[in-house]
Structure formats: C-alpha cells, structure tokens
Amino acid sequence: MKDLVSIITPCYNSAEFIEETIQSVLNQTYQNWEWLITDDLSKDNTVEIIQKYNDPRIKLQVLDQNGGAGNARNNSLERAAGRYIAFLDSDDFWYPEYLETMTDYMVENRAELVYCNYSRCNEQLQPVLKDFLADKVVTFSNLLKTCRLAPVSTMYDTQRVGKFLFPVKSKREDHVMWLNLLKVIPEGMPINKTLAKYRMRENSVSRKKKNIIKDQYLVYKDFMGFSTIKSLYYTANWAVNGFLKYSKIFN
Prior knowledge:
By secondary structure, this protein is of the alpha/beta class. It contains 9 helices and 9 strands. Strands 1, 2, 3, 4, 5, 6, 7, 8 and 9 form a 9-stranded mixed β-sheet that branches.
C-alpha cells in the first residue's frame, strides 16, 4: 500500500475559494491521504462549506482564537500521521496528478524534499505570470537569497527528516521553516512540471514586497542569527530577486 500523505491547510475567511480547493484534492489520482484543515476562526461560512463534504479523510479543527497562518499550520502538523507532508492553502489548487507525481519521484529518487512548477494566477485562476519553474536544486545557501519553495508546490518526507513547525512570531514563517529544514538535509529536488496553481489575491501579504522588507531582515537577524551586515546583504538579495519574480505581471 502507498504511504499516507498528510495535507496541511490553514484557512481563514476562505468561503469564496475553498470549494475549488476541496475539489482539487478529491480529484487526486493518489487517494491515500488525510487532510488536516485548521480554521483560524473564520467570520464567513468557510466552516459550513467544509462540513458539507462527508469524507472521513477530511479532518477539520476550528481554533478558539485567531493565531495566524503559521499557528494554524502547526496545529495541523501536530495532528498529522502521514509519512509525507504536503501543503495546500485554502485558496490554491492542485492538478489531479500532483500527489502521485510528487510521491513517485520521492520514492524513485530517495528524495527528502521535492518541489514542482506552479502557475501564478489571479483570483479566477487565470495565469498572470509565466509559471514559476522548479529548475534548480535548492540548498540552504541559495534559499537564503530567494525563496524558491512555495507551500502549494513542495513536499517532504517525515520518515527521513522529521516534522518541521512554523515560527509563529514571524510574518515570513514559510521561509524560516524551509531554511530550518534545509539546515538538516543537503538539498531539495526539482520536478520541472506544472502541477499546481497559486492564487495571487489582491490583498495577499506576499504581494506587498515593500511592506515586508523588515520582516525579511528579521528572518536572517533573529531566526538565522546572522550579523547585521550579513542580514542586510541577504535582505538586499531577497528584495532584488523578489522584484524580478513578480515584476512582469500582465493583464
């Protein structure tokens, strides 16, 4: 029997998009999964929509108070029982072969972490940028300068590396978590195939690069323990790469 995949999803006020996300999971060709959804005290009908799906693999927990995406992901991770950890935010989308392609690659290549191409889309899931390409082996060193790993397109093997939680005091929790993981393993392997869609919402924090320079600096200064000069150096690299990553949006 194929190994269990634990899908980690935080959600907050996701009623507009959650049904598309749910369908993308139910349509997976790889069916041995559990889906740990943690609702961060949504104020809309997100929870009611999720509860309509009578599938025992969907395991919803609603928090008593809002704690942010990192805290919600940690709640799901602590409940996860699968060998493989996959991340899917409540407004993103997987192609049907996502889980099968990712797990097959990990088994065949004894990979500890893999990531794939993903489409960068607007709120209607129509492309607004060229696909982000998984075309480089990821290491701790090159991940310092730009974060090539996105939750929607990355999977790791807990049997090989254990579980990695998100820092709840950082607004750049994804990047910190990936860096901590890449301290333990030598590399993450690319799958140059588009298997996911990342929804670039107008109010997305990740789109407001100018507002998170300080938060990115703290990734290096506080969480990596770098000197001020070294932290500024990597922040500058990240800012330049971030501008290049998102500067060519077309209508």
